[in-house]
Amino acid sequence: MIRSMTAFARSEATNPWGTLTLELRSVNHRYLEMAFRLPDEFRLHEGRLRELIQQQLQRGKVDCTLRYQPAGVDAKGLQVNQVLVQELAKACEQIHAVFHEHRPVSAMEVLRWPEVLQALQVDPEVMQQTLLKLVSKALQEMLAMRQREGDKLKQLIGQRLEAMHAIVLQVRTVLPEIRQLYREKLLVRLQDLKIDFNTERFEQELVLLAQKMDVDEELDRLTTHVSEIRHVLQSKEPVGRRLDFLMQELNREANTLGSKSVDIRTTNASVDLKVLIEQMREQVQNIE
Length: 288
Fold this sequence. Notes:
The chain is α+β, with helices and mostly antiparallel strands. It has eight helices and six strands. The chain has three domains: 7-73 and 126-147, Ribosomal Protein S5, domain 2 (2-Layer Sandwich), CATH 3.30.230; 82-115, no CATH class; 148-284, Four Helix Bundle (Hemerythrin (Met), subunit A), CATH 1.20.120.
């Protein structure tokens, strides 16, 4: 299952008691890391939100932002904090006793005191259920976006694997010619130097040189890794870390191919392979 780690989702719910707006943003990250920005009324639900996200996502840096806009208050939606008003009345009596102040405190003065006038309380269970539905909806939207981007990444990686496979086949085709040209080149140099040499010893040295420049093993491993990546791309599980490891192995073989090169064609093939591998590696960094 190829899913990108880059995604954005937004969901909103309007209720008689207010409007909730949730935004989820995720970018690539080695592990799953979550950050929450929640209003005070919803901070106690952070643990449950973490559980929901962990059930759906394996990797990525996820930012969860919730905005709460209470419904417009009116005369029917207000209540007086009776306990606070009684405490204020007692405080006023004590002050009057000290300063002998007899001017009565007006109702408007009391109403202006913080938290005397309150909006009707909403059932916390109702708010929680609304929030959980909102998160579930946003997560589904995020997963769908991750999947769409993942399908694109899978297609791009597949194209580069095809190009790598073609390069490996080309190198296999020209290897016999490269070995023959290298042998002839050595013979010409020895003849130009007019040095008498033992033919049998010369052939032995050629065998040793051929072993040092032999890249059949590297080509076989490149072919195997390409085949494994294609298999991994069909997996139903998150495969980002496995693909990252395979990119390292591909790069190792491409480097060895270049270090053993004695011909411009294999040198160019090594460079082209590393370019393709780097392009894939950048894409793999964003796969869950």
